[in-house]
Design a protein that fits this description.
The chain has about 425 residues and is mostly beta strands. The protein has a 20-stranded antiparallel beta barrel. The longest helix has 21 residues.
Length: about 425
């Protein structure tokens, strides 16, 4: 039986899903048709609860449905990517689980200078990175945002953009803290050339949590963009003031903040990339959606300073094989406690054609995590190998075998998990 909390989330998010579909369906009959696929995967694990002793094995069978679509440019534009799944365990180790992931971004022109934007992001997120990644340590996070954007041409090279948006963040579990916020921004940019922009941006963020806590965040930053024939960079550098108020408690903080991205075409087949972010925010913001390498501890009080760096390369070879290697480092500091979390590691993916319609798969991720003030150090290793076979133009068969483990100076947190899975995926559209 599905958990009651899952029913609450589905009905709560249903109103946004209806709105997403209503904006997407009229735009389906365009040059780029949507894609729709479904699949079934069975995965055996010899330690599904990921415990150091008394391991329990089980098989999860998961059914998924995926949809993707991007409209052609027009008065209304929409980009949708969604995947929903439902998993059951043979021995009922966990209750049936609903999996969901949704990215939607849409806008419509109201006048020549005003457009209305709407976005919705839905993710299954880990509640506490100190604990193992199992269904009992996950929750569903939905971020809905909408509002108008006014764009004014001040001159042939200067542009002013003013936006006002409402944002709502909801979690599946009642124990998590939901929030509502209003965001206002003013952004002036000057184009020195078709490939060079500089600007100044001011952002005001006013959030109210369901606990009654209020958060004010004001940021002023310089923005930049530059493109060469083989290299593109963009980013921002600024200053944030942060204040939270709850009953008679006031927390104030400030920080130099910014972000930077770089992509360079090293060759016709290889792209190198670098991204970095330093941000002062709270747990109900969208930072963990925008940056996939971090886990925000939802059990902590609000107020978090996040630093992330990711660098690597992507290569597509002439034989259709492809490879991606990334190195990453991140730090999360919680403002209302002495807790700090650091993570650093490497991520590797490789796909190699073996024979016609049969590809080999290889993946590995190694991460070193440290937690303060516990003085705890963990090493997480995930590796897998597999095969993917294109049985027909629309049907793929996939098999993988892998191992996940955590070594730690706290023995009660260690585990080893050996697994294998078999699945099929059918493309309806």
């Amino acid at each position: 039986m599905v958990k009651a909390s899952e029913c609450r989330v589905v009905s709560g998010y249903g109103k946004w899903l209806v709105l997403v579909l209503s904006m997407t369906i009229p735009l389906v009959a365009v040059a780029e048709p949507p894609t729709l696929s479904g699949g079934v995967t069975s995965r055996y694990s010899d330690n599904v609860t990921r415990v150091p002793d008394g391991a329990q094995d089980d098989v999860e069978t998961r059914t998924t449905l995926s949809f993707a679509h991007q409209t052609d440019p027009g008065a209304c534009n929409a980009r949708t990517r969604a995947e929903f799944g439902y998993g059951v365990w043979s021995d009922d180790t966990f209750e049936p689980e609903l999996y969901s992931e949704l990215d939607f971004l849409g806008d419509c022109s109201v006048t020549d200078n005003i457009r209305w934007e709407l976005s919705d992001y839905l993710r299954d997120v880990v509640q506490d990175g100190r604990n193992v990644d199992t269904p009992d340590n996950r929750t569903r996070k939905n971020i809905f945002r909408t509002g108008p954007v006014l764009t004014v041409r001040l001159s042939q090279v200067d542009r002013l953009e003013i936006s006002a948006q409402y944002e709502n963040t909801e979690f599946e579990e009642n124990s998590e803290i939901d929030s509502e916020r209003l965001l206002g921004s003013a952004w002036v940019t000057r184009s020195f050339s078709p490939s060079t922009d500089l600007g100044v941006r001011f952002l005001a963020d006013r959030a109210e949590l369901e606990t009654g806590e209020e958060i004010d965040r004001d940021t002023a930053s310089l923005t930049f963009r530059k493109a060469w024939s083989a290299t593109q960079i963009q980013g921002a550098l600024g200053f944030t003031e942060y204040e939270s108020r709850f009953m008679d408690q006031v927390l104030e903080s400030d920080a130099i903040v910014g972000n930077f991205t770089l992509e360079r075409d090293v060759s016709a087949s290889t792209v190198a990339f670098l991204s970095a972010t330093h941000e002062l925010t709270d747990q109900t913001s969208d930072i963990d959606v925008r940056i996939g390498d971090i886990t925000i501890n939802l059990r902590e009080q609000v107020g978090v300073e996040v630093t992330t760096i990711r660098a690597g390369m992507r290569t597509v070879y002439s034989d259709r094989s492809n490879m991606e290697l990334a190195l990453f480092s991140n730090r999360t500091e919680y403002l209302q406690s002495a807790e700090e979390e650091d993570g650093r590691g490497a991520d590797f993916r490789y796909r190699l054609p073996v024979v016609s319609r049969l590809d080999g798969l290889l993946g590995a991720r190694v991460e070193r995590r440290s937690f303060q003030p516990e003085d705890r150090d963990d090493t997480l290793v995930n590796v897998h190998v597999g095969l993917s076979y294109q049985a027909t133009r629309k049907l793929d068969l996939v098999g993988r075998v892998g191992r996940s483990s955590r070594d730690s100076n706290v023995p009660t947190t260690e585990y080893e998990d050996n697994w294998f899975e078999l699945g099929l995926n059918y493309r309806f559209l």
